[in-house]
Amino acid sequence: MNRALFKIMLAGSIISLPVASHGQANGAALAANGASPADTRLLKTIKDRPAVKTAFAALEAEHDQWVENIIALTQIPAPPFKEAQRAKAYADKFKAAGIGDVEIDKEGNVLGLLRGSGKPGGKLVVVAAHLDTVFPEGTDVTVKREGDTLHAPGIGDDVAGLATQLSLIKALAAAKIKAPMDILFVGDVGEEGLGDLRGVKHLFLKGKYKDRIASFFSIDDGSVDGLTNGGVGSKRYKLTFKGPGGHSFGAFGIVNPMTAMSQAIVNIYKIPVPKSPKTTFSASVVGGGSSVNAIPRESWLQLDMRSESAAELAKLEQAVLAQVDAGVASENAARSTKDGAISVDKQLIGDRPAGNTDAASPLVQQTIAAYATEGVTARLSFSSTDANVPMNLGIPASPFRARRRAGAAIRWTNGSTSARRLP
Ligand SMILES: [Zn+2]
Predict the structure, then answer these.
(1) Is the model more confident about 6 or about 142?
(2) pLDDT of 14 strictly over 70
(3) How many angstroms is it from 128 CA to the middle of ligand 1?
C-alpha cells in the first residue's frame, strides 16, 4: 500500500537538496516515462536500500491500522471552519505515532516535526494533507462498508491523505530512516472553498516554520497517476449594487441597481481571455430585491475568476472590475439619480494565488521517477490546491495523488460521498 507515495516522499525529503543542481541539468533528457535516466537510476538505488525495504515492510504491516485510522477520522465531522474536533484527534494520533513537537497552531493546523540528521532549525520539507471537507455541518459522516469498499463523505478527500501520513511516520521510524532535513507533517485547515487555503497561507506567511520551508508536498484526492505541478489561481468577489429603491409605479424612472448589475454581467462576458494559459470567469450566484412591485435597493452577484497564470488573473480582475464600474456609470447616466445614485461594494471573498513548479525542476523530475519505479506514468496537471501558496512564493511544491498501488481497485464517487475500495 502506498509504495509509490512513499518513494515520492523520499524523493522530496531525502534526496532533493543534495541533488538539486543535478536534477536541473537533467531536465532536458527524459525517458519515455517522463523521468530523466539519472533520476530513474537514483530512485532504483533508493528502492534497493535495506532501510527502505524495512520501511516498505512496515507500510504493508500497517495496512489494517491505516484502514482503522481512515474510518475513525472520517467519522469526526470537519466541515469548513469547524475542523477543531478532527484536529484534536489527529494531533493525538501524531503523538501516538511517535512524532515530536506536536502542536495545533493559531489557525488550527496540526503540526508535528520529524527530526532529520541536519542541524536543528535548518531547512525542512513539508508533507501535508487537509483536515477539512466540503460537506456542511450536519452531514452524516458514518462510514458504510460494502465488501471491500468504504463509503463516506470526505473519506477520499482528504482523510485517506491524513491516514497515509500517519503510516509514513511509523514506517520511517520502524526503518530508523533519518532524512538530511527535518520533515514537518501537517494536517491543515481551510483547503476547500471559502476556507481559501487559510491553513497553508498561515503556515507560509505567519507560522513559526515559515522561513524554514524548502519544499512542499500535499497528499490529496485524485487518480493514482496524477501529479499537480501547476496551481490555478482564483479571485472571487461578492459585488453588491445599491440604489435608493422605490415603488415600481410611483418612483418609475429612478436608477435600478439590478440594471447596473445586469449591464456589468453582459459586458464582463465580452472580455477576451486566453485559451492558454487557461483563464476563465463565471457569474455564479445572484440575489436581491424585496418585492415584485418595488425597485430594489440592492442586488448582488458572486463572481469567480480563474487562471493558470498570475499575470493573466490580475489582468482579468482589473478588466472585470472596470466593467462593474462601467455598469454603475451607465445606469446612473441612463435614469434619474434625484433620490440617490447607484454605488457598488466590491468584496473579495476568495483569493487563491496562481503558480507552478517547473516540470524540469528536481522535485517534479524525481517525483516522476518515483512514480515510474512503481510502473506509473505521472500525468502533470493544473489544479487549485494547498500547493498554490508555496508555488506562488516560488517554493517547489507538488500535490501528488498516489494513494493506491497501480492496478489496485479503488472506486471514487463524486458528489455527496466518496467511496474507497480497500487494496
Ligand atoms: Zn482535497
Answers:
(1) 142
(2) no
(3) 11
135: DSSP letter: S
Tally the residues of the chain.
Answer: 423
Among the residue ranges 112-116, 174-178, 187-191, the one predicted with the least confidence is: 174-178
How much distance in Å is there from the Cα of 134 to the middle of ligand 1?
9
CA of 41 to the centre of ligand 1 (A): 32
Phi/psi zone of residue 274: left (φ > 0), alpha (ψ -120 to 50 degrees), beta?
beta
CA of 67 to the centre of ligand 1 (A): 19
The residue among 323, 395, 381, 325 whose CA lies nearest residue 353 is: 395
Q: Is 312 a residue whose pLDDT tops 70?
A: yes
Could you tell me the distance, in angstroms and rounded to a whole number, from the CA of residue 401 to the centre of ligand 1? Answer: 10
Residue where the block lists cell 460494502: 146
Structural contact between residues 398 and 363, judged by C-beta atoms closer than 8 angstroms? yes
- Alpha helix locations (H) across 49-141? 50-61, 63-74, 84-97
Q: Looking at the predicted structure, is the pLDDT value of residue 378 above 60?
A: yes
How many angstroms separate the alpha carbon of residue 405 from the centre of ligand 1? 19
pLDDT of residue 53: 87
Distance CA 290, CA 344 (A): 18
- The rounded Å distance from CA 224 to ligand 1 centre is 14
Q: Which domains does the chain have, with CATH numbers?
A: 3-231+354-421 (3.40.630.10), 233-352 (3.30.70.360)
Query: At 259, which amino acid appears?
Result: T
d(CA 212, CA 121): 7
Concatenating the DSSP letter of every residue in 166-178 gives HHHHHHHHHTT--
Q: The pTM is what?
A: 0.78
Q: How far is the CA of 288 from the centre of ligand 1 (A)?
A: 33
Question: b/e per residue, 52-84, with b = 16+ CB within 10 A?
Answer: beebbebbeebeeebbebbbebbbbbbbbeebe
pLDDT at 4: 54
Phi/psi of residue 184, each to 5°? -95, 110
